[in-house]
Amino acid sequence: MAVGKFEIADPLRTQAILAEHQIQAKKSLGQNFLKEPAVIDQIVADAQLTANDIVLEIGPGIGSLTEQLAKVAKQVYAFELDQSLIALLEENLAPYDNIQIIQGDFLEVDLAAFFEQKQLTGQSVKVVANLPYYITTPILLKLLNAPVALDKLILMMQKEVALRLTAQPGHREYGSLSVVVQTKSQVKIEQTVSHASFVPQPQVDSAVVSFDLAQLPDFAITDRSWFDQVVKAIFKQKRKNLWNNLLSFVGKNPENKAKLETVFQKLRWQHQVRAEQLSIEQINTLAQQLALIFPK
Question: Where would you find this protein in the cell (predicted)?
Fold first, then answer.
């Protein structure tokens, strides 16, 4: 694979590409082009890629990260929604024979069908992406709930969202998204990235977050649908305590109040306890206890 003298991630070449092709970042697509080689190198290192890995990249932009991924991975599939960037990407990445640019909305991709088409089942597949802020959560949940085996996710996102995903009990950012994500992967902030590392500059800083999908909690969630319903209910109104949120969930009639009281007594919890004080294991125990006495 040949490599030009100046790589795409080099700030001078990034500027030249944007100027030559008269590219204006589209706010509607949340476009911010990464122009910091050191950040890109660290993202690739965070992904712990090998020559056997398949990489799915979402939103390659002008190919700065794509190029570096292709130097290490076996194959890169880069999904780009912006039709106007496809020809540019194909031109910039032409020296690499292990990159395929796919035009379209990743949220609409049938991953099971894609894996079958590309014969990816049984291979090591990782997702690496600099995500547009406005669709971070939908893409993350699509990946975490994917009907295919993904080994690891390395995702760049707004720093505030990263803090929510990694928040622990007792932290003000700890909520339903923290719980759902942390039951499906081991989550870690790998690096923070200044807004000055992008063209154009967003108003907030970013963070690169890793999701190890092989590292799950050491307790079992027996009914995922019910667990998710309970999580949504107890965090629905953060100003309310756990007792009041649960009453809104199960119903406030005297019979349900009495049933709920037996759960609190069994768990030795006070009515004043709040959802953000509970560990994920405690929330799982709560869901299991509620399932015993309330119809789903």
Answer: Cytoplasm
- Which of these, 76, 81, 133, 77, lies nearest to 107 by C-alpha position? 81
Q: What is the CATH topology of the domain spanning 224-293?
A: Helicase, Ruva Protein; domain 3 (1.10.8)
Residue 34 assigned ligand-binding role: yes
Cβ(244)–Cβ(272) below 8 Å: no
Over 90: is that where the pLDDT of 31 sits?
A: no
Rounded to 5°, angle at Cα 42 from 65 and 92: 15
Q: How many CB atoms lie within 10 A of CB 12?
A: 9
| 32 annotated as ligand-binding | yes
241 labeled binding residue: no
**Is 59 annotated as ligand-binding?**
yes
Residue 21 has pLDDT above 90, yes or no: no
Q: Which CATH number fits domain 11-212: 2.40.50.140, 3.40.50.150, 3.40.50.2300, 2.70.150.10?
A: 3.40.50.150
User: Which pairing describes strands 54-58 and 125-130: parallel, antiparallel, or unpaired?
Assistant: parallel
